[in-house]
Write a structure and sequence with these properties.
4 domains; disordered N terminus; Outer membrane lipoprotein wza fold like; wza like fold; five-stranded mixed beta sheet; 20 strands
Length: 408
């Protein structure tokens, strides 16, 4: 029963009200008797035993016999709740049991032996966003007394994280934003607490990546400049081959081997596939410091020969992936006189040593565009037999003779 906010009442009235309040409190059905025995001893904690009340937490306060005070409350950012009569009471950092005792002390100014139970409905805390070189990016709700180390240990910085230049931006939507650059590495190394600041609600923590450090790789075999190459971090097999001057004519484009440092295992790569899928790490892997790339020599030289009805029959280098019959004819200057496209033959000698003869009817241009030329191919486009030439005067004589025979 509230009784001490009556400054206008006389001392006799106040004493009478106090006596009535005391009798009511101890009477059956009064605030003390109506509170369960277990709740009279300690608060029931619904979240987790020993969990503390944080800023933003939702709690329920029960004051026995006082329905005006018994209600749900939200803890403000300072860790306070505001109740009728007692105004603000600081509950941040207290367990529900401790909060019950704190409220009981505050209400004791107005109630005789107030019985209070605090239960936590939902956990509070502050909201912090994590971005950059960490594995656990996103928004986290953490305790209001959390520091930078608490959230970064949960987020898991990457191997390339620059922990000496962590940026913490303060300020919620609509507020002025400020950014602090924190040397978190100094806290890890020397326990310098300037590198482990307290966080605020709405903070954004950004962990930058270190500047790329060059790595050394070895490129061997059929490249223009075999040897040790220094390439940027995160370079790929294709990048290393380009740094080594590219493949030479006799390189086996399907015989490129990658051996990672400190391992004996080799991965076989196809250069033509690498060219087409440079952004696919499964086909064009990233290199590590000390990796070795080996380009084997081709069993068959990377050349082809084209003869017959073309303008420049000869042997040509085959350095382009998916090089077609149409490309070969074009490289040889185009078709010559009387090409017999129905009778093209390609003599092919694969790596197994068995000679194959491929016969084509290439009058359809799509056949020329779909026939892939392989190293060592010998292409022949037969030339048609020239017709018999007739002297013009002889031809005129023949025509006159035919005319005379027809008009006899």
């Amino acid at each position: 029963m509230f009784y001490s906010s009556l400054p206008f009442a006389g001392s006799r009235i106040r004493r009478s009200l106090a006596l009535v309040a005391m009798l009511w409190a101890i009477a059956p059905g009064g605030p003390i008797a109506s509170l369960p025995a277990q709740a009279q001893n300690q608060a029931q904690e619904q979240i987790a035993p020993g969990s503390v009340i944080d800023a933003g937490a939702k709690i329920h306060i029960t004051v026995a016999g006082e329905p005006d005070l018994s209600n749900d409350y939200t803890v403000d950012n300072a860790g306070n709740v505001t109740l009728l009569y007692v105004n603000q009471v600081h509950l941040g950092g207290l367990t529900p049991s401790q909060a019950s005792q704190a409220l009981a002390r505050a209400l004791a100014k107005y109630y005789r032996n107030p019985q209070v139970v605090v239960t936590q409905i939902s956990a509070g805390g502050i909201s912090v966003e994590l971005t950059g070189a960490i594995s656990g990016q996103g928004t986290r709700v953490v305790r209001s007394d959390s520091r930078l180390n608490d959230v970064l240990q949960q987020a898991g910085p990457g191997l390339d994280a620059d922990l000496a230049k962590v940026q913490v931006t303060h300020g919620q939507t609509g507020q002025t934003h400020t950014t602090d650059t924190v040397n978190y590495l100094s806290f890890l190394n020397t326990q310098d607490f300037s590198g482990n600041p307290l966080l605020r609600n709405g903070d954004v923590v950004y962990v930058p990546r270190r500047d790329a450090v060059p790595i050394l790789v070895v490129v061997r075999g059929e490249v223009a400049k075999p040897g040790r190459e220094q390439v940027p971090a995160k370079s790929t097999v294709y990048d290393a081959l380009q740094a080594a001057g590219g493949l030479v004519q006799d390189a086996n484009r399907q015989g490129i081997y990658l051996q990672h440092a400190n391992t004996a295992q080799q991965s076989l790569l196809n250069y033509d596939s690498v060219l087409r899928n440079q952004t696919d790490p499964a086909i064009n892997p990233q290199l590590l410091d000390g990796d070795i790339v080996v380009v084997k020599a081709a069993n068959v030289p990377n050349v082809y020969t084209i003869t017959g009805a073309v303008r420049n029959p000869s042997q040509y280098a085959l350095n382009t992936p998916n090089f077609t019959l149409a490309d070969a004819i074009g490289q040889a200057g185009g078709l010559g006189d009387r090409p017999k496209l129905k009778e093209i033959t390609i003599i092919r000698k694969p790596g197994n040593g068995r000679v194959q003869t491929v016969k084509l009817n290439a009058t359809d241009p799509t056949v020329q565009g779909n026939t892939i030329i392989q190293p060592g191919d010998n292409i022949n486009i037969p030339q048609g037999t020239p017709g018999t030439k007739i002297d013009p005067l002889t031809g005129i004589g023949i025509l006159i003779s035919i005319f005379g025979i027809l008009h006899r």
